[in-house]
Amino acid sequence: MTTRRTADFELPSELPILPLRESVVFPYMVMPLFVTREKSVAAIEDALAGDRLLLLVAQRNAELENPSADDLHRVGTVAMVMRILRMADGRVKVLVQGVAKARIESFVENEPAQWAQIAALPDDDETWTAEAEALARTVRGRVEELLPLKNLPPEILSITANIHEPGRLADLIASNLRLRLSEAQEVLEAIDPLSRLRRVDALLRRELEVTSMQAEIQSQAKEEMSRGQREHYLREQLRAIQTELGETDQRQEEASEIRQKLDEVGLTPDANEEATKQLRRLERMHPDSPEAQVVRSYLEWMCELPWSRLSPDRIDLRRAKQILDEDHAHLEAIKERILEFLGVRKLRQDSRGPILCFSGPPGVGKTSLGRSIARAMGREFVRVSLGGVRDEAEIRGHRRTYVGALPGRILQGLKQAKTRNPVFVLDELDKLGADFRGDPSSALLEVLDPEQNSKFSDHYLNVAFDLSAVFFIATANVLDRVPSPLRDRMEVVRVPGYTPEEKLDITRAYLIPRQTTEAGLPEGRIRWSEPALRTMITDYTFEAGVRELERKIAAICRKAARRAAEADTRIVRVEPKTLAKFLGPARHEQTLAGSEAEVGVATGLAWTEAGGDVLRVEAAITRGRGLVLTGQLGDVMKESAQAALTWVRWRLADFGLDEDMFSRRELHVHVPAGAIPKDGPSAGVTMATALASIATGIAVKPTVAMTGEVTLRGRVLPVGGVREKALAALRAGITTMVLPLKNLDDLQEIPKELAKRMKFVGVAHMDEVLEHALERSPGVRKRTRREPMRVATRGHVASVKARGRR
To answer: Fewer C-beta within 10 Å: the chain N or C terminus?
Structure first.
């Protein structure tokens, strides 16, 4: 083995290697080491067996248990083992002293210890120039300044004063500073003594700046300290100490965690700027202050909202049609419209498309249609009920200045969905309220407008959030209650009520299997007869949907489940004669067409939230004067009665009657079921027919029902809800339905098999209504536009020319 001479030592060309995890040993430095790794203990044993020399090299990664050749720095320090102590737990404590610097040339195979072929690094400490003297004095001065602040050994000043070699002076000072591993290794690898001393001078200057800043923080804390600020001062002092040690306190850890989350959620530039601003505020605040909790909650919301997270659309029209058919029976037009929307979205994914609004009675499946759309598209489903919402902040969120402030329900729903493009159902849009806190419907204008919702502004966030990827679906029972500006931003899809035959199909295919499973009954435990189901549909429920019908089926299933729980193995048979036993007496009696014609009694058709209904309008003439209306009628219905009376009084002469017969009599119009509020213009034709019947004494046909709005000139105007009214007429046994001429196109919505049972007559004037409704024609003479209008007032007839443009 050859040797190489350096200073007073002859270095062998090969030495065992002792890897160091987190420290660097300099020449002339004495350091104790605890050795536990098997290869390191073997290296010490090899050194003791020879000339007690080994090479100390720092690891690049301190976490590695068995570092390879590539994991070690190439420059290290040759050290001599001065003392060794073997401990009972197997560890070895050695005291080593640095001798010289050396570079690893190559590694040598020598098990179990790791050896290397080394080359000694030159040491030019013999040169001592004026520049070296000036730099040494500067370094000694900085060490003297740093001595009382860093708790350095006092004897270091006397030692440095007697050293006149730049490299050795640099190594001595570096070994006494708390340097990072990379900084210490950089000093060790510097060959030129002056360069090494300059690097140490820069490190000393940095330490002085950090220490001065720490002293300034302590001084400032002492000046501002009071009884209430003592805890704050202690925390700031602890923070300064931890900063000096390279550690982080709990506040810094929290800020670092929040910053990492903000980087991961993909904030928009504006949102990132606001979040960064609030995070800096949080770092400066006391962690227990109320304001810090407000800022912390805000940042948590910013981290939890799905700023960039999107669910991939998986649109397969065949599968979508299958899902819609599985979840909903009938509603073919609605399903076709949904499939059209999905087809456009498949061809163009960036298409915004319209905002759909499902309008229809309760229980017809409006909300479940939204759930089916979400399943067909592979998106998350969110539902928010707007019923009773009166505060605008429920939509836009509260300002952060209020206690307990939160974002609005829109952003809360997106947080729940954890994606930026869910199917979002806004339920019960027609039940929004408004009071002194604002109008929620106005806040929804920005949400449901495709041109605006890409920059929706929530008061809590105070930054824009993109809602353009959300598929919004609104639902409403009565569309008239939705404000017109809001209705203008949506495409209304009417979901009609079900016919009895459709309800029967839904009951068999969906309701009975679902409720049987809910009750835990085995298949075949209940036998349902078709007559019993029809009786339940007509006599025990009165609705356009199937919600109440499902409750009745659930009630019977519960009774069967109780029997099964009592070990009764008999099959439960549901027949018409046993319905009263299960459900009690019938709650709803259908209004059926009368068997005899009556004077002053006309049959009208109404449209309610629960579907269509048949109304009997009765008129009577008694002694007295004026018009009396009963039956809890609304303002619109009262005005329709006034218009109908005016038209009949105008046509009395054409009927061949005394023109002032109503001036000396009291007319009473009554609509039965007075406990139920009624309103709407479609009863005008019915009231006019009843008044014309009582005036002429001609009975109204009992099998004829009518609907339409009447004007003072007798024109019949179109109305809504024709499908529901027609179905109600069919249930009541009506054979002829008189409706406005312009409403005949609405009959396409009626199932063909039901439309064949009834005759539909389109009319444009009241004269045509009377021809089809009364038992015989009253002999009405048609008027021209130039004829004067006759009105009866106070017992005499005055001629008043009709006004208006020709």
So the answer is: C
Which string of b and e fits 585-622 if b means at least 16 CB within 10 Å?
eeeeeebebbeebebbbbbbbbbbebbbbbbbbbbbbe
Contact yes or no for 732/592 (Cβ under 8 A) = yes
Burial class (CB in 10 A: 0-12, 13-18, 19+), 431: middle
Of 615, 640, 645, nearest in space to 627 by CA? 645
**CA separation for the pair 412, 419 (Å, rounded):** 12
> Dihedral angle at the C-alpha atoms of 92, 98, 104, 109, nearest 10 degrees?
-30
Q: Which helix (H) or strand (E) holds 122?
A: none
Residue that is written with structure tokens 């350096």 in the block: 6
Query: Binning pLDDT at 50, 70 and 90, where does residue 412 land?
Result: very high
- Calculate ∠ Cα 311-261-472, nearest 5°: 30
DSSP codes of every residue in 552-598: HHHHHHHHHHHHHHTT--PPEEE-GGGHHHHH-S-S----PPPSS-B
CA-based nearest residue to 420, from 266, 296, 314: 266
292-293-298-300 Cα dihedral, nearest 10 degrees: 110
**Predicted confidence band at 229 (pLDDT cuts at 50, 70, 90)?**
low
Please report, in angstroms and rounded to a whole number, the separation of the first and last CA atoms in the chain: 129
Q: How many residues does the chain have?
A: 806
What is the widest separation between alpha-carbon atoms in the chain? 146
**How many H helices and E strands in the chain?**
27, 28
**Which helix (H) or strand (E) segment is 695 a member of?**
helix 684-696
Paired strand residues for 384: 426
Q: For residue 713, is pLDDT > 50?
A: yes
Q: Which residues pair with 796 in a beta bridge?
A: 793
d(CA 749, CA 268): 48
Express each pLDDT in 567-621 by its tens digit.
888 899 999 998 989 998 887 655 555 567 889 999 999 887 666 788 889 999 9
Greater model confidence, 1 or 321: 321
Number of neighbouring beta carbons within 10 Å of residue 240: 19
**What pTM does this model have?**
0.61
Backbone angles phi, psi at 9, to 5 degrees: -120, 150
DSSP label at residue 748: G
Active site residues: 682, 725
Residue with tokens 């008043």: 800
Indicate if the pLDDT at residue 788 is higher than 70. no
Residues paired with residue 515 on neighbouring β-strands, in sequence order = none
Q: How far apart are CA 315 and CA 332, in angstroms?
A: 19
Query: Which SS3 state, helix, strand or coil, does residue 653 take?
Result: coil
Tokens of 291: 């304001």
Q: What is the Cα–Cα distance from 311 to 382, expressed in whole angstroms? A: 13
pLDDT surpasses 70 at 151: no
- The pair of three-digit structure tokens given for residue 395, joined into one six-digit string: 């939509």
Q: How does DSSP classify residue 448?
A: S
Contact call for residues 196 and 190 (beta carbons, < 8 A): yes
- Give the pLDDT confidence of 482-503 residue by residue, as tens digits: 888 888 889 899 888 888 888 8
Torsions phi, psi for 604 (to 5 deg): -115, 170
Distance CA 116, CA 17 (A): 7
How do residues 521-566 score in pLDDT, each as one tens digit?
888 889 999 999 999 988 888 788 899 999 999 999 999 999 989 9
Taking the C-alpha atoms of residue 659 and residue 790, their distance in angstroms, rounded to an integer, is 8
Q: Tell me the average pLDDT across 161-181.
A: 84
Q: Are 371 and 363 in contact (CB under 8 A)?
A: no
Give the Cα separation of 306 and 416 in Å (integer): 10
- Compute, in degrees rounded to 10, the torsion defined by CA atoms 683, 685, 688, 690: -70
